[in-house]
Specification:
about 190 residues; alpha+beta; 2 domains; four-stranded mixed β-sheet; 10 strands; Translation initiation factor IF-3; initiation factor
């Protein structure tokens, strides 16, 4: 037996329920507006009964045999779905990775300026990626880059933990920091 699928909306990217005349199954299992089982009815009888009550017939389980349809106000149903999706989206937190690029021969004032940026990123709840960019012959002195990263780590050790340790990526040496408060939230959630 071939299973029927609900229609898929390209615009919204979610499965749309078939309603009223879009339902083509000859027999349907009908659920009333209050959730009571009305039994198996023909498509036409079910549509007439829904119209009498001033409601729509909505296919809720197209893969069942026979398909299950519920009598409801479809506009209200869609509104509630959108409201739930909006609430779920509102509760999501988006964490960004903010990057600070420095050179191995950085001046003290520039170092303090970049350090303040890193601290602000971590306090805002974002991850901070510190990249030491080597140009030309500077690549020979990787130890200077490592010392600079260690200096950043030491200055932020009270507010940040290391998510990924220092590593070379081409001509860049990078380290990713995450705030301690963010890390403790992850541990307490499970």
């Amino acid at each position: 037996m071939k299973r029927k699928k609900a229609s898929y909306s390209q615009k919204t990217g979610r499965v749309e329920n078939k309603i009223n005349s879009q339902i083509h199954a000859p027999e349907l299992r009908i659920v009333g507006p209050d959730g009571e089982q009305l039994g198996i009815l023909s498509r036409d009888d079910a549509l007439n009964k829904a119209r009498e009550l001033g409601l729509d017939l909505v296919e809720v389980a197209p893969s069942a045999d026979p398909p299950v349809c519920k009598m409801m106000d479809y506009g209200k149903f869609r509104y509630q779905q959108q409201k739930r999706a909006h609430e779920a989206k509102k509760k999501q937190t988006v964490i960004q990775i903010k990057e600070v690029k420095v050179r191995p021969k950085i001046d003290e004032h520039d170092y303090q300026f970049k350090l303040n940026h890193v601290k602000r990123f971590l306090e805002d709840g974002d991850k901070a990626k510190i990249s030491v960019v080597f140009r030309g012959r500077e690549i020979v002195h990787k130890d200077l880059g490592q010392k600079l990263l260690d200096r950043f780590l030491e200055a932020t050790q009270d507010i940040a933990d290391i998510e990924s340790p220092a590593k070379m990526e081409g001509r860049n040496m990078t380290v990713v920091l995450v705030s301690k408060s963010q890390k403790s939230e992850k541990k307490s959630k499970p």
